[in-house]
Amino acid sequence: MSVKVDERDRILLGLGTGVLLASSLRIFVAGAYSSLEKTFFYGMSFPSGLGILMLLLAAFLVGRMSRKAGAALTAAYATAVLITDATEYTHLVAAFALPVALALVKELDVKYLTMGLVADLSLRVLAVGAEPADFPYTRVILALSLFLGAYALWKEPGTLKKPGFGLYAFAALLELGLIYPNAVMRYSGMTVYYLPEFVGFSLLLALAILLGPHLARKPTAAMALLIIGSATLFIKPLSLVGLPIALASAIALVESAKGSRGGVVGAFYLFLTATLALGAYVGRDIGLPFMEDRLEALILAASVVYALGAYGKSAEVSRPSVKEIIGPLIGLVLASVIVLALFHVGPTYSEGKRDVLLWTYNVHQGFGPYDGTFNGYELVNLLAEGKPDVWFAQEVVGGMIGNGYQDVPLFISAHLGYAYEYKPAVEGTYGIAVFSHWHMKTEAELNLPSVGQARPAQKVSIEELGITVVNVHMGLSEEERAMQAGELLKFAEASPVAQIIAGDTNAEPDERAIEILTRDYRDAFSERPPYTFLWERNGVVDRENIDYILLKKDWPAEVKDYGCLCDVLASDHRPVWAVIELP
């Protein structure tokens, strides 16, 4: 039986709404975070907090907008995403697109919204864990989905309905990571996994989303399951089951949340929740020390707030048919089959060798140095060209709210076949990693004593090479780094002794921290490069020499060559490399 024309429009609008909601949430938070980071570190006055003010303004105006204006804003957002991934600018458009998305959520049957959320999940699978706006092929599909939604909206007369606090609370809960498989897995303690696990968990979350409306007729049970499911974050790995249940319950309560008012308050609550979530990672650096490593408590609290917002409100829910459940699943399965066929499903291992190319490279939380651009696409191409044998990576995100929930270890492995060992510094989704094409084992790991954000170190053995290495990311103050250097030296020289220490020390060559480390280790560089970190914009120049590859002094390895790719702009740091001939 053919689908009626108005039903087709509902489906198109639902697909566009779900994708617009998830995408605009990611882009808005990422762009606001990147903009405020530039203000904090370099005094950049634009766009700074402008996007936040625009979100509050849009939350106030959205109920007065015609549907054609909403369609135009959706199309403008699609165009912006298609043209650039510079989130510091596109998030200004997302600030208006996000309230439009929630206005559409308010009027659509929830079953159509679920189709759109699963469509966004399919885009994440096609991007193998990266941000869809970052890679050209997924960017086009993302924009097309939004344009189709805008087309369906343009055809309808009337004005948009103003979303209230309850729907902003729903958006805040989604943006805390419940709809992202990599975030749920890493929140639950899975530090290393590859493409098949990611695809499998994506299918589980899709089922949770699509079956959520079937819980809607029992709102009290849905509220209880939402809170209990979120609470399983304190009982890892039970949250691998609990968070999908919480997601299904959150979907079930959407209809009940539609009746609330207070849209501007809701928009401020969304901003506050995102800020507190960032505080879970860098709380001591942004004046929120009480939030550090408290993401589980925030997710639970946000679940309680959302449940209370829906409490006592009954609503009729149109449950999806079997056909309406199977359709989006087929799309996700197709995306899964495509990526499993085209990308690496696990590491590709090589035989050992004597001449080994080492890289250390801080990838800036998945951002380029300027404008809040995502750097996954550039990073994949850079690594494919440079072909490091061992890559010591810092500021590696695996599903962090401030960076579009990118999973850098996953998409690097999927594109290039690297094995990896990941050491999250905090919340399972931000830290350091060692990549290679050999079998590796984490021997030890720790967070160094710190006065700012958590600073991790990991010790990894590489089987085919018969060596042990240490990867590190040190603190921002000179006194802190000196303290950390002593601890790092003890860590490296404990059994099994590390032959190599590499990473971002944040320390200049003449600092006390480097003096401590070079007591027992030698710099692979006989002559330092001009810089390994450079940020230069609007007359502000920050040039530093802070990334190192250090070799044990009594280890008879020979440095055959070394250098810095100082013209590479994928991050604010530069790749530092050395070719080592193993003894």
Explain the overall architecture:
By secondary structure, the protein is of the alpha+beta class. The protein is 50% helix and 16% strand. It has helices at 5-42, 50-61, 67-83, 87-107, 110-126, 136-154, 165-178, 181-187, 195-211, 219-231, 239-252, 254-257, 263-282, 295-310, 322-342, 376-386, 408-416, 478-493, 512-517, and strands spanning 355-362, 390-397, 419-426, 430-436, 440-448, 455-462, 467-473, 500-504, 521-523, 533-537, 540-544, 547-552, 558-564, 576-581. It has a six-stranded mixed beta sheet with strand order 3-4-2-1-14-13, covered by helices on one side. The chain has a six-stranded mixed beta sheet with strand order 5-6-7-8-12-9, covered by helices on one side. It has a two-stranded antiparallel ribbon with strand order 10-11. Helix 2 runs antiparallel to helix 13 and helix 9 (195-211) packs parallel to helix 11. The longest helix has 38 residues, at 5-42. The protein is elongated and about 75 Å long. The relative contact order is 0.10. Mean pLDDT is 95; it is low at 1-5.
| CA-CA gap between termini | 72 Å
Physical arrangement of strands within the biggest beta sheet: 3-4-2-1-14-13
Helix content: 40-55%
User: Which of globular, elongated, flat, extended, rod-shaped describes the shape?
Assistant: elongated
Detail the poorly predicted runs.
Answer: 1-5
- Mean pLDDT, to the nearest integer, reads 95
Binned strand content:
15-25%
